[in-house]
Design brief:
Oligomer: single chain
Structural class: alpha/beta
Number of domains: 2
Largest sheet: 5 strands, parallel
Distance between the termini: 53 Å
Shape: globular
Radius of gyration: 19 Å
Order of helices and strands: EHEHEEHHHHHEHHHHHHH
Number of helices: 14
Strand content: 5-15%
Length: 280
Amino acid sequence: MFRRKRFHKLKRNVIAFTTHKSGSMVLHRVLNDICHLNRIRYYSPNNEGENLPFDRIFRGRDFISTKHGCFGPIRFFVPTKALNDSSIILLLRAPRDFLTSMFFSYCFMHFGEIEANTGYRREVAEAGIDRFVLDMVSDKYDSYKGDYGTGARYKKYIGNIYDRYMRYLATVVDQPNTTLVSYEEMVLNFNSWLRKILAAFNIDNVEEVHEAISRRHAASVKTSDENVRSHKRKVTPGDYKKKLKPETILELNRKFEHVLDKLGYSSPQYETTQIPEIRR
């Protein structure tokens, strides 16, 4: 006889926000393992079954507040009444590296309606990375076709890349129930990053879960070589310095000044260790 799987109900739901190109698939695999090991129901856009119906959520259905479990990785802010009563995880990456990575995703790496480096994707590549990253943080973002890892499918709800960072700063970053973690720490100190993720779940078997997940995933976040044709990119922080023109970097620094200051990416400590010192 078929028996329905029994799930453990958390004291507080866990909602994991992030952005594209910020280690969201690593976060997905970690969340999936935590939920599997603790029998927690997991709603994810990366799941075929219990996924997140963003189209309905943006049209007014508060899906998250009607369910129990873990939700994520959500790669842009979505409104929900459950925000104040849940444990929030927010995974962010330095926006200059984020935009650099997005260029390679859009032109060469991500699947989509046309093949990589063909048609308008090739035109964007030929126009160059500097034009792309500046367009992604301006009104010109709307002129780009397709998604290819940019989140453009929902752009009328979530805005351009700059808008997404600012919305997180306005709604999530300073909330007392938010655990703010960085892509840079995920890459450079996975075990420390993982402990912060686990703390948001308030589970009893932390050490057991930490050991299992660290053994499975710690090595997967590290790579030093780069090959855009084989979906392989450098993950270490600061790659934007090698890919962008100095004047482009200056413009991004000006545009994201508040974001960089708030998230610790403008501090001398970040330049030394490449792990931001977040200001709360």
